[in-house]
């Protein structure tokens, strides 16, 4: 899963990524590349829905190009959670009868399979919204200086 967005920025003078650093570094991201017009972060991803939404991205690149600030992100944390929410009910359907020897309640598994796409959409929506807000914060901080 990938996400890409571009927002106009009037000037690259005093381009500062401090807001991005202050937001992402406490959320277990590390800076992979830093230049005058580009910053790249890499993170561990998301392992739970209780974690901050920005952790749904595992790679974030913010760069200034032709009068705009562009954000590219790989949503590896969202992808991991999507696979998990889809494979969990399927693996339960297979493993519980094998190891316990009793039939399982298939309607509950089917309900979970119906809920999984909603959870996946919600996780992606939260992550994209957090990334958009991060980019807007970087732009507001640069316009204020």
The SSE order reads EHEEEEHH
Number of domains: 1
How large is the share of residues in beta strands?
15-25%
**CA-to-CA gap between the ends?**
34 Å
The tally of beta strands, per DSSP, is 5
Which residues form runs of ≥5 with pLDDT under 50? none
Structural class: alpha+beta
Number of helices: 3
Shape: elongated
Query: Radius of gyration from the CA trace?
Result: 19 Å
Helix fraction bin = 40-55%
The average pLDDT score comes to: 89
Major beta-sheet overview: 5 strands, antiparallel
Sheet with most strands: strand arrangement: 1-5-4-3-2
Short description:
Keywords: Membrane, Transmembrane, Transmembrane helix. Helices cover 49% and strands 23% of the residues. With 145 residues, it is α+β, with helices and mostly antiparallel strands.
């Amino acid at each position: 899963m990938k996400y890409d967005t571009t927002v106009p920025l009037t000037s690259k003078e005093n381009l500062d990524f401090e807001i991005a650093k202050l937001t992402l570094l406490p959320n277990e991201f590390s800076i992979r590349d830093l230049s005058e017009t580009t910053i790249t972060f890499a993170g561990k991803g998301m392992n739970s829905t209780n974690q901050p939404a920005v952790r749904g991205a595992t790679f974030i690149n913010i760069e200034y190009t032709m009068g705009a600030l562009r954000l590219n992100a790989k949503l590896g944390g969202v992808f991991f959670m999507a696979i998990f929410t889809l494979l969990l009910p399927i693996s339960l359907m297979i493993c519980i009868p094998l190891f316990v020897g009793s039939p399982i309640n298939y309607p509950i598994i089917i309900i979970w399979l119906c809920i999984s796409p909603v959870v996946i959409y919600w996780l992606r929506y939260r992550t994209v919204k957090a990334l958009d807000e991060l980019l807007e914060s970087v732009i507001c901080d640069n316009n204020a200086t």
